[in-house]
Amino acid sequence: MTPLLLGAVLLGKLAICVTAQVLAMLTPPAQVRFDSMDYKNILHWTPPTNNTSLRYYVQWKIYGEPQWVDVDGCQGIKKQECDLSDVTSDLREWYYARVHASSLPSSKSAWALSPRFSPRWDTQISPPALRLNVTEQKVVVRVKGPHPLVRKMHSKLHYKIFLIHTSGEEEVFKMDCCSNKLTLKELGHKAKYCLQAQTVITSQAKSSVRSSLKCVTML
């Protein structure tokens, strides 16, 4: 075989190998993002195919650091989420995460990167839960606050209590996070009122959505 012909044969084999490797590459996961509520930081993604045998591998790093780190408990998993709360808990830092898919024995995807994430600014705070006790011309409001981790991280937490009249008029009351109860007095006889609550973090000018409406009729 002439050197020219031999070279052509080798190039052809090389092209076949490269093509096979390209075909073996999976499409990477899509829509990689953090969903964070009360500093529980969960990475979610969309699978690249309907193949239920895919396994996923997740890594994280601090913004500005070169080294990626495997997430314990999120190597070779089948579910499309990973809890990174323990490794992304520093409110001063920004983080990235990435995930790739693998199909045994050797096919795998490229890494798919999340947007930059800050637990301080990107977490959502849940509203408090209300418990109401109606007595004559007054309502005693008790509040169950958000996750204890939120209260631990923010000592200057407080709540807004919204008293909504049937006319639509609202009165707003401030309640310290450590208070046991708020008593609303001199309310109308047989009148109907609805109440909502909101968690407020003063230091970050951040607040939760309002809680669901709770309505009462006075005695």
TrEMBL record:
<dbReference type="InterPro" id="IPR050650">
    <property type="entry name" value="Type-II_Cytokine-TF_Rcpt"/>
</dbReference>
<dbReference type="InterPro" id="IPR015373">
    <property type="entry name" value="Interferon/interleukin_rcp_dom"/>
</dbReference>
<dbReference type="GO" id="GO:0005886">
    <property type="term" value="C:plasma membrane"/>
</dbReference>
<dbReference type="Pfam" id="PF01108">
    <property type="entry name" value="Tissue_fac"/>
</dbReference>
<feature type="signal peptide">
    <location>
        <begin position="1"/>
        <end position="20"/>
    </location>
</feature>
<protein>
    <submittedName>
        <fullName>Interleukin 22 receptor, alpha 2</fullName>
    </submittedName>
</protein>
<dbReference type="GO" id="GO:0004896">
    <property type="term" value="F:cytokine receptor activity"/>
</dbReference>
<feature type="domain" description="Fibronectin type-III">
    <location>
        <begin position="9"/>
        <end position="111"/>
    </location>
</feature>
<dbReference type="Pfam" id="PF09294">
    <property type="entry name" value="Interfer-bind"/>
</dbReference>
<dbReference type="InterPro" id="IPR013783">
    <property type="entry name" value="Ig-like_fold"/>
</dbReference>
<comment type="similarity">
    <text>Belongs to the type II cytokine receptor family.</text>
</comment>
<keyword id="KW-1015">Disulfide bond</keyword>
<keyword id="KW-0732">Signal</keyword>
<dbReference type="InterPro" id="IPR003961">
    <property type="entry name" value="FN3_dom"/>
</dbReference>
<feature type="domain" description="Interferon/interleukin receptor">
    <location>
        <begin position="123"/>
        <end position="217"/>
    </location>
</feature>
<keyword id="KW-0675">Receptor</keyword>
<dbReference type="InterPro" id="IPR036116">
    <property type="entry name" value="FN3_sf"/>
</dbReference>
